[in-house]
Description:
seven-stranded parallel sheet, single chain
Amino acid sequence: xxxxxxxxxxxMNGKAADIFAKHISAKPDSVLGLAxxxxxxxxxxxxxxxxxxxxxxxxxxxxxxxDEYVGLAPEHDQxxxxxxxxxxxxxxxxxxxxxxxxxxxxxxxxxxxxxYEEQIEAAGGIDLQLLGIGVNGHIAFNEPGTPFDSTTxxxxxxxxxIEVNSQxxxxxxxxxxxxxxxxxxxxFEARRIxxxxxxxxxxxxxxxxxxxxVTPEVPASILQQHNDVTLVVDEAAGTYI
Length: 241
Ligand code: F6R
């Protein structure tokens, strides 16, 4: 595992964006795995800036997002569809048909999960996967206890995740309590992984995940066994590493 330490959240996102920019330039037809959340917004902004400066071309890039809420329309401003269009898709020359998120509105959610796995496989697998980390150690919406061999599936969100994410909804009751998520195996199969973390609230879980035992109780701990993981942290998140 490689650790890149930054002072601030902005610097952390800039360093993570450097990795993505280099990767896209070296392999313009890359398959990228993308995350939502508060942490990587500036990373996407930085990629947009580089695109606008003529330094990056997304025209042959394919993307797969980690997760989406069940039952939230794509137009809802807390859906991950909305987030990605707002944060990146609509601002660079990505081909809409090559940008994928699980469809949490699908009539048959199990079939949707299987189809998502097939689409990732058909695209040749994920070259570079971006991850954040939840305060409970989740990656994507793989909550503590999720088996390491899981593929894309439907999950019941834990009280910890509901508490953290419901603050972004107009009323907490509006937040769905189930979601579709890439599985632990799906993520682990990415050829390269970059995890970004910012803020003191992530410090304890980062220590547990990267320096504690590898266990499904701390989903991100699986990353200790991956051969190409880069952790990019700001000063507060990196306190114990
Ligand atoms: C988002 C995702 C989540 C977040 C994690 C951290 O697609 O899969 O695992 O990465 O909850 O979220 P933030 O960045 O809001 O702290």
